[in-house]
Write a structure and sequence with these properties.
The protein is of the alpha+beta class. Helix content is about 30%, strand content about 20%. The strands form 5 sheets. Strands 1, 2, 3, 4, 5, 8, 9, 10 and 11 form a 9-stranded mixed beta sheet that branches. A hairpin with a 2-residue loop joins strand 3 and strand 4. The chain is elongated. The N and C termini lie far apart (about 110 Å). This is Histidine kinase-, DNA gyrase B-, and HSP90-like ATPase.
Length: about 600
């Protein structure tokens, strides 16, 4: 029976239909992330404008008045639509003049992305051959659709009406084709330029330009994209320049490393602004963001974007231990790399395997391994002196060996791409960040290069101790109220040397200073000992936490991550009483010795 059905499939096959069309349409619309609205509208406008005559390819983002209220408007040149095309364009998954395909921008997204935040209405006007037609999309009684309007020529309701006279009265020419989209929002009195999402979420004043630069790396250079004066924080019109062009023109240095199988890594350096604190040198005005970023780049668009604190906190995993406020990293996937945007183009997904979401951290090992030499030197020049950590490193090395901690850092998620499924050999010089002492040591087990995704069973070596003292570096690691943070991917331990327990312990020691010791000498010795003990307590807590990784039972993966968390390391740093008696003895001995030496020098 089954064989007969298969044999007759060509005569019995019937396409799947939609049982509840209203529900399906509403589900598609209301599941769409609101924040994709501007991307979809702008991409449609740019694609349409690119089909206009050279020199006449233009997109304008502005505010227009509708019943006295400002509404966001996106207008573009390019082939217009007549009444019948405008009607068809409103259907979900309909496109006019564009090829459809899962990997293409085929026209479904703009409507779907706009309607959740514009249930009052999205007005489309299009001029074709000197005539302007209009359609209004919105939601009424729980159903999305074309809203009835009164046709001025007939006085009858219709879903597509001619508005040539109204468009001319609004200042639009009918000499060439164009299309315009106006967002009415959810309320008649809603200013959709300042408040596009009806306060859910609320947006900053410069949200529009920020949203564009957070998504688009490349813009079609043949299309002029203009922001009118009423949508910019400076109150004057501006032409958008792509991030790609800004990097080439305004960044101090940038390099691209080409890797096999369609991967490229862009390393970008934008130094501090010479006069404006908290800005980088590429800063022009309040329109264009100048903060450093990390992101995945595909098809000219940014995914998995990390900006400002979200980037500086994760940057050490990518080999940017210091200077992350001025160093950006973009991982570019070629057009034929086996990934595909999700249905709403907010994320990328691998085409193979379980079709997991593409994560920026998937490429952290490759980014660390392939940093250009100039960037390595730049990062090292920003690093603080490591002398204080040398004795502590020796102690931790002995402790790691004594308790037998294995070198089993968390396995990097394997990129599910056939060509990259085997481990990638990393260059010897860049396999693992090392302290200055390790760099000077002979090649050995500590210098053995890692392989991406590989677990290497060996005695763990000492994590790189990085001491942070500057307020901005402390804040970048989210250490303002914490003592330390461990980055397992890079095997680095950042220690906040300004954490209050250091000063607390130093003050406690100073109260035990011998009467003959000067205040300055006692303060110097007490601070030095307090910092050493601070490092030691945190380092020992980390080693003990790492020792939990190999436990087969009693500790799950979440427990093991918590054992080396910033919170646990901070609690260890707070215990300034653990070694107080021994520290007091050492403090008094060192102060006495130093006082005696100073006295002898003064006699001479």
């Amino acid at each position: 029976m089954l064989d007969d059905r298969e044999h007759n499939m060509d005569t019995t096959f019937a396409k799947l239909g939609v049982g509840d069309q209203d529900f399906l349409v509403a589900s598609m619309i209301e599941r769409c992330p609101k924040v994709m609205m501007l991307r979809e509208l702008l991409m449609n406008a740019i694609e349409a404008a690119s089909r206009a005559e050279p020199g006449a390819r233009r997109v304008e983002v502005s505010g227009v008045r509708v019943d006295g209220v400002r509404k966001l408007c996106i207008w573009n040149t390019g082939p217009g639509m007549d009444a019948e095309q405008l009607f068809r364009m409103c259907d979900i998954a309909s496109s006019i003049g564009k090829a459809q395909g899962l990997d293409r921008n085929f026209g479904m997204g703009a409507k779907v992305a706009s309607l959740p935040s514009n249930q009052l209405g999205v007005r489309y006007r299009s001029c074709r051959a000197g005539r302007v037609h209009q359609v209004l999309l919105g939601k009424r009684a729980g159903v999305y659709g074309r809203l009835a309007q009164i046709d001025a020529s007939t006085g009858q309701p219709a879903v597509v009406v001619e508005v040539t006279t109204e468009a001319q009265a609004d200042g639009r020419s009918i000499e060439t084709d164009w299309t315009e989209v106006v967002l009415f929002g959810n309320r008649h009195d809603q200013d959709t330029v300042a408040d596009p999402y009806d306060r859910n979420p609320s947006m900053l004043r410069n949200w529009l330009a920020t949203a564009i630069y957070s998504k688009f790396y490349h813009l079609n250079e043949s299309v002029e994209v203009l922001l009118s004066a009423d949508v910019t924080p400076m109150g004057k019109p501006r032409r958008l320049v792509s991030l790609e062009s800004r990097i080439a023109e305004r960044f101090a240095r940038h390099d691209t490393v080409l890797l096999p199988e369609g991967l490229s890594i862009h390393y970008l350096y934008d130094p501090a602004h010479p006069t404006l604190e908290r800005h980088n040198a590429s800063f022009e005005d309040g329109l264009v963001p100048d903060a450093s970023i990390g992101a995945v780049l595909h098809g000219g668009e940014l995914y998995e974007l990390r900006r400002e604190k979200h980037w500086t906190l994760e940057a050490p995993s990518f080999g940017v231990s210091f200077g992350a406020r001025h160093i950006s990293v973009l991982v570019e996937l070629s057009s034929d790399f086996p990934v595909r945007p999700d249905g709403y183009r907010q994320f990328l997904r691998y085409q193979g395997g379980a079709q997991e979401q593409v994560r920026l951290n998937d490429f952290a090992g490759l980014v660390r391994a392939n940093r250009p030499e100039w960037l390595r030197e730049l990062i090292e020049s920003m690093s603080p002196d490591l002398d204080l950590s040398r004795d502590i490193s020796d102690h931790l090395r002995s402790l790691l060996a004594a308790i037998g901690v294995k070198r089993m850092r968390p396995k990097l998620r394997r990129i599910p791409v056939p060509a990259l499924s085997s481990p990638v050999q990393l260059p010897r010089a860049s396999a693992q960040p090392r302290t200055s002492e390790q760099r000077e040591s002979p090649a050995g087990k500590e210098n053995t290069p890692e392989q991406v995704g590989e677990m290497v069973p060996d005695v763990e070596f000492v994590p790189e101790l990085l001491l942070v003292r500057q307020p901005n570096e402390i804040a970048d690691r989210n250490l303002t109220h914490r003592a330390a943070r461990y980055y397992p991917e890079a095997h680095q331990l950042f220690v906040n040397m300004s954490y209050p327990s250091v000063g607390r312990l130093a003050a406690m020691l100073q109260t035990t200073a011998p009467a003959h010791a000067s205040g300055a000498l006692a303060s110097s010795v007490a601070t030095s000992l307090a910092e050493q003990d601070h490092l030691l307590r945190i380092g020992r807590a980390l080693v003990m936490g790492l020792g939990k990784r190999d436990l087969a039972e009693g500790w799950n993966e979440a427990d093991k991550r918590m054992a080396v968390s910033s919170e646990v390391l901070t609690i260890a740093a707070d215990d300034v009483f653990a070694n107080r008696a021994e520290l007091t003895r050492r403090f008094q001995a060192e102060v006495t010795k130093a006082s005696t030496e100073l006295a002898a020098e003064s006699i001479i």
